[in-house]
TrEMBL record, chains A, B:
SMART domains: HTH_LACI. GO terms for molecular function: DNA-binding transcription factor activity; transcription cis-regulatory region binding. Keywords: DNA-binding, Transcription, Transcription regulation. It comes from Meiothermus luteus. The keyword Transcription applies. This is HTH-type transcriptional regulator DegA. Residues 6-60 form the HTH lacI-type domain.
DNA sequence: CTGAAAGCGCTTACAG
DNA sequence: CTGAAAGCGCTTACAG
């Protein structure tokens, strides 16, 4: 029943060209007359032709696939990161093989040198601590590896300056009176995950406050799992420590969401008794009036994909690094009220 | 530098057989003399030969790959499910293409009919509500589809009897004096996720209590996100409703973990003031002394993979269904103390 | 049980 | 700019 898919031969025949020409059209080879190219393209459209990826891989001698290893927390973050990666890879007719880290066991399997993860043309690794799990911090493969949202001296990387983000948070929140608090994310799969990310943000925050002549006491940092409910528990904790107002750097939008929920439950007004700054800049923060440090996540993903593609094409230089910075987006949750002069310090 | 990988031709030459024979050995074809087979196998080992999967796919005319669509919550559950699936598929020399649902946007993309998810030989879908997102609940593909941890009249499925699990929970907890409580998981991506799972478990629990002449008041059910911190908030909520002891059906081990944490913080002893029953039977429940309804997750995954492989091999019957049941594992968190006679009712 | 051959659907020099 | 041909590394009837 299932009629055979059209092949490059049918296309060539109907377009009255050789199969080589069809292949060139497929691969955007420059030396095809626009006229020929259009003829071929229109036949493909008529036929509903789509090339057989497996044949391409055999003939081309590569997989035209990139492995992406990534944690399965912070799904909104990784979803956006993948958008950026896919954007670039699809232009190159590359596919993605996803290796989500569902558990330490699976991660270990991904990192074994016979793993499928290494059977592709290159690796994109989105997990800070991951390199540290490996013997001398190197992946057991000759294929190119690029880190994204992470850094290592051994590989190309596109990373976010989380420390700077923390300092920016401090610079913004330091304008307000009252004490300072922070939520530091701390995933279960500790070493493997965004662990250092949370630490760097809080470290930057602390340093920024110090520069502003303010301070972040040790016990004003709440270590939380990565979930909105963790944010709720954090606010409960802060309320046991001190009376309002609270100036809170949440370290992630999702944690901030929980803080907002709990604030409402406790009758604390955001922007007044609870000043709150998230991190990520997810779309929904706008409607919630949540101030946040917006990360150019998609751009970071795209940059990493480009670095990897260049390696796949044969670039052999020393590791390169691309740094990204967050942008402060101030909204109602840190709007200075009238009772709170901007010049406070 | 990278020396070419050995091919089937080298193996054939060194083993002094035709390439057809090597191929037969690779595919466990029965008609190969054991002697020949061993000779070929040993040459492969010497050479470090591994077949080129792409060539196989071109020649064989299929992808030898199965798509697995799955949510990215409850990572321990899905990790175990994948173990079961991989077990079966690797025996068949099939690979898995993973499509983790990081966001509604990505899910929608997976379900578009030109999606990569449909370019494989079959689909394994581990998401209850997913079928309801689709036009007349059917996936836009001719390829076989099997649901796992989910049910639909349109497709083969391997599913857990969550309602029964809830009733078993009730039968176990009903032996204790005191009031009853339940935590119902409720993911953000509501319709898409394990939503119905949580509902079914609680519904079964309620019915089971009713059969035992006990009851579960509406407001004794706490709707929680899927995280340990949600379990902590749940216990806080229960404590505002009533004094100890609490008989809590947590609906998932991870939620139960949070209850244990909060109980400790509040000075409530598990098994006495807080009787607690999880769901899943994850390995760590043993060391925590957590009673739980153990799910044969790996077996369910394996069963689904088998159903799919049969469809891929051409089976054309009406949809088949394989039901799985949890097993009660009673530990310290529901151990009747001396002050609590087993015969209470 | 096994070999030689055809074929899977592409890419890529090589000529023109 | 384009075609014809060789080749990628397998599977699978077809003979024997």
């Amino acid at each position: 029943m299932a009629k055979r898919k059209p092949t490059i031969h049918e296309v060539a025949h109907l377009a009255q060209v050789g199969i080589g020409t069809v292949s060139r059209v497929l691969n955007n080879h420059p030396s095809v007359r626009p006229e020929t190219r259009n003829r071929v393209l229109s036949v493909m459209a008529d036929l509903g032709y789509s090339p057989n990826p497996h044949a391409r891989r055999v003939a081309g001698g590569r997989s035209y696939t990139v492995s992406v290893i990534l944690p399965v927390i912070s799904t909104e973050f990784y979803s956006r990161l993948l958008e950026g990666i896919e954007q670039v890879l699809s232009e190159e007719r590359y596919e993605i093989a996803l290796f989500p880290i569902f558990s330490p066991t699976r991660l270990r399997r991904y990192l074994e040198n016979r793993s499928l993860a290494y059977q592709t043309d290159g690796l994109l690794v989105a997990s800070q601590g991951l390199a540290y799990l490996l013997p001398n911090q190197k992946f057991p493969t000759e294929r190119p590896v690029v880190l994204v949202d992470a850094y290592s001296p051994h590989y190309d990387s596109a990373y976010m300056d989380n420390y700077l983000g923390g300092r920016m948070a401090a610079a913004h929140l330091a304008q307000f009176p009252g004490e300072f608090f922070a939520i530091q994310m701390q995933e279960e799969l500790d070493e493997v995950m965004r662990n250092t990310v949370g630490r760097e943000r809080v470290a930057g925050f602390r340093e920024g406050l110090r520069e502003a002549g303010r301070s972040l006491p040790e016990d004003h940092v709440f270590a939380s799992r990565f979930s909105a409910d963790g944010g709720r528990l954090a606010l409960q904790y802060f309320m046991r420590l001190a009376p309002p107002p609270y100036n809170i750097f949440a370290g992630a939008d999702l944690l901030a969401l929980g803080v907002l929920e709990e604030a409402e439950r406790q009758g604390l007004r955001p922007g007044e008794e609870v000043r709150l700054l998230g991190f990520d800049g997810h779309p929904w923060t706008e409607t919630r009036g949540l101030s946040t440090l917006a990360q150019p996540i998609e751009a970071m993903g795209a940059a990493a994909a480009r670095l990897l593609m260049e390696r796949i094409r044969g670039y052999r230089g020393t590791p390169r690094t691309q740094r990204f910075e967050p942008t402060l987006v101030a909204r109602a949750s840190t709007r200075p009220g009238p009772e709170c002069p901007k010049s406070f310090a």
